[in-house]
Design goal:
There is one protein chain. With 373 residues, this protein is α/β, with parallel strands linked by helices. The chain has 2 domains: 240 residues, Metallo-dependent phosphatases (Purple Acid Phosphatase, chain A, domain 2, 4-Layer Sandwich), CATH 3.60.21.10; 127 residues, no CATH class. Helices cover 29% and strands 24% of the residues. Helix 1 runs parallel beside helix 2 and helix 8 packs antiparallel against helix 9.
Amino acid sequence: MVRFLHSADLHLGKPYGSMPDELRGRLREARHTVLDRLAIKAREGGAATILLAGDVFDTETPSPSVLRQALAAMAGHDGLSWVILPGNHDSLVAEELWATTGRSLPANVLLAMEPAPIQLAQGVIVLPAPCTTRRPGRDLTEWMGAAATPEGSLRIGLAHGAVQSFSEDGGASDVIAPDRAARAGLDYLALGDWHGQMRIGTRIWYSGTPEPDRFKHDAPGRALLVALDAAGAEPTVEPVETGLFDWRMLPLAFLPGDEATERLAPLLPSGTTRRRTLLRVVASGRARPQARAELETAIAAVAPEFALMQLEAQALVTECETDDLDRIDRAGALRQAADALLVESRDTTRSEGEREAARDALMRLFSYCAAMS
C-alpha cells in the first residue's frame, strides 16, 4: 500500500489587502503554518509524501522571506518528502522563482518542473503537468496517456487547472478532460485550482485549499489522505481538516415582525471559536426598519469577538409603514424626505434598482434619526 497527502492552493504570501491590518497578519501566518499542519496530518495517516498540486505561492514573485521560510518549514519535517507543482499563480513563466527555489532546495523537496515521469518509490510514478503560463489554453494532462511506466506501477497524475467549465478564477473553458484518469490509465489524479474540495470521479479529486481564504466555498480547510493498494485498484480517499480559520456564511431569513436579536443569537458559533471565525451574515426576506436597525446593532455588539464579522443585506427588503416614518419625524423637512423616499420605494414605474436605492436611503435616514434620539 502507498499513502500520500494531496493538497494544493496554499497561496503562501497572499497579502489579504482588503482585511484589517491586525487580521491580515494573522491570516498570512495561518497560511504559512499550514505546512506544519499538512505534515502532521501526513504522519498521522501514515503518508510519507505530500503532493502539492499547484499554487504553493500566491504570485510569481514571492518575497525572499516567504520562499525561504516555506522551504525551511518543509525541510524541518524529516522523513516526509514534498512534491511541488507549478500552478497558474506560480507558473513556469516565473523563471527566477523556480531558479532561486532550485538553488535553495532541501533534500526532501522535489520540483515537478516538466511533463516527465518522477519515481517516488519503487513502482510508484508521478506524472506531473506543470502550468506553463497562468492560462495555458490547452489540456496539459494530455501527455500522461502516452507516458511509459514499468509494468504494474502505480500511476499518479498531478495537475492544476479547470475541469469542465469551472475555475477558481472563473471564466475558463474546459481544460482538463474529466475522464483523464481513465484515458491515461491513472490510479489517481491529484488536482489543484478549485479551492473547495471536490470529487470529480473515484480517481480524480480536487483537494481544496488547506487554509481557506474566502467565503466562496463555505467549508473548512482540508487536504486528502490517499491510499493505493495496487495498480488498478480503486483508491481510498479520506478528507482531513487542516484549516486554522473558519470562513462561514450564515443565512438569516426574516419575516416582518421577527426580532433580530432572537433570530441571530442562537445561530452564532460558540465563544471559544469566534476569534478564529470570519463570519458573513447573509440576511434575506423582509423586515421593518426597527428590526433592520436592531440587526445592525446586534452585529456591531458581538463583532469584536470574531476575527471578522460582516453583514450582507442586499437581499433583505426593508418595508416601511407610516408609523415607521413617525420614528424619523412627524413633520418638517426630515419627514418630507422620508415620505418622498417611501413613495419612490413603492413606485412600480421605477426600476428595481431605483426602488432599492430609495429603500436604502430611507433606512439610512431611519438609522441616523434613531442614533440621534
